């Protein structure tokens, strides 16, 4: 998972890496207040999880608080490479004397980390590497040894960075290890006209496999940019929002994935991925249905269950109980097969909800759900 710049900046600051004073907001009015607090002149920076904001008008200087408000109003809502700007960060402007590039990145093939550093920062490193490969130093790091002062000195020397960057190089490694990151990148790392070293841009990619011990990001909403995904995660559901119109609930990741394919094969687009796994069907069904039904894109829902440890009658029972708490507003196509399928189907037949239909095959159910999505 990528962090936003302001979140990565916060981590850098916690680890003692010098960064410009800054604050973040989603309101242009508040941007004016922040600019005032930061001394008037500020850099207004779009918070999107993509690089190259500078070139696309997502990083702009504002001369005073009124200009900061106006610029923020222009940048908020802007589209940068398919990312809509929801927040801006306002930062104290820095007088740059030199721009460097430094990053630690996981080198999966080598089973190591790699320090990538260059005295030619500011532009995208790929461009520098293409134009002048000798200007980009690549130093392997043994993960067991990490980066201490000698190694940091080696990296700085190889890239032609000034010795004052060694401290930042060491702390940046501490960010990587301490925060369970797969990538930390500073572009540009600058030397100011007064000779101070500052991280002017901050990028961090966290290792999702370490989320269990970095759970502060769950509550800060960094993991789930989509509000429905956040709501689902809060209920412990394995839910991914997609952009189609057929809501999908299934048991087991494999079955859910093939359900996505079959629905797509019927000419409809899946609206989500929801795996109910093998847990308590009534609760999960109620939670899952409420999340899916509150997605305005969803036109029909396909529940595809192959009963195993979770028997079909328990799932059917879960659906019926869910109807007590969740008002069904969209057609539901249910396909139950496997363990106790006959009893499961009977439970749904008995409930006879006008919006619930059953199908005996996965293909038939997918076709029906696709049709309903297109007609309702
Ligand atoms: P990116 O384009 O998404 O990587 O965004 P950056 O945060 O790296 O900003 C783009 C460029 O704007 C940087 O490379 C700098 O050259 C410039 N920039 C950003 N902040 C400042 C600042 O405070 N002062 C000056 N002079 N330039 C800045
Ligand atoms: Mn940058």
UniProtKB/TrEMBL annotation:
SUPFAM superfamilies: Glutathione synthetase ATP-binding domain-like, Succinyl-CoA synthetase domains. One of its GO terms (cellular component) is succinate-CoA ligase complex. Substrate binds at residues 251, 308-310. Keywords: ATP-binding, Ligase, Magnesium, Metal-binding, Nucleotide-binding, Tricarboxylic acid cycle. It catalyses: succinate + ATP + CoA = succinyl-CoA + ADP + phosphate; GTP + succinate + CoA = succinyl-CoA + GDP + phosphate. ATP binds at residues 45, 52-54, 94, 99. InterPro entries: ATP-grasp, ATP-grasp_succ-CoA_synth-type, ATP_grasp_subdomain_1, Succ-CoA_synthase_bsu_CS, SUCC_ACL_C, Succ_CoA_ligase-like_bsu, Succinyl-CoA_synth-like. Binds 1 Mg(2+) ion per subunit. It holds the Pfam family ATP-grasp_2. One of its GO terms (molecular function) is succinate-CoA ligase (ADP-forming) activity. HAMAP family: Succ_CoA_beta. Succinyl-CoA synthetase functions in the citric acid cycle (TCA), coupling the hydrolysis of succinyl-CoA to the synthesis of either ATP or GTP and thus represents the only step of substrate-level phosphorylation in the TCA. The beta subunit provides nucleotide specificity of the enzyme and binds the substrate succinate, while the binding sites for coenzyme A and phosphate are found in the alpha subunit. This is Succinate--CoA ligase [ADP-forming] subunit beta. The lineage of its organism: Bacteria, Bacillati, Actinomycetota, Actinomycetes, Kitasatosporales. The gene is sucC.
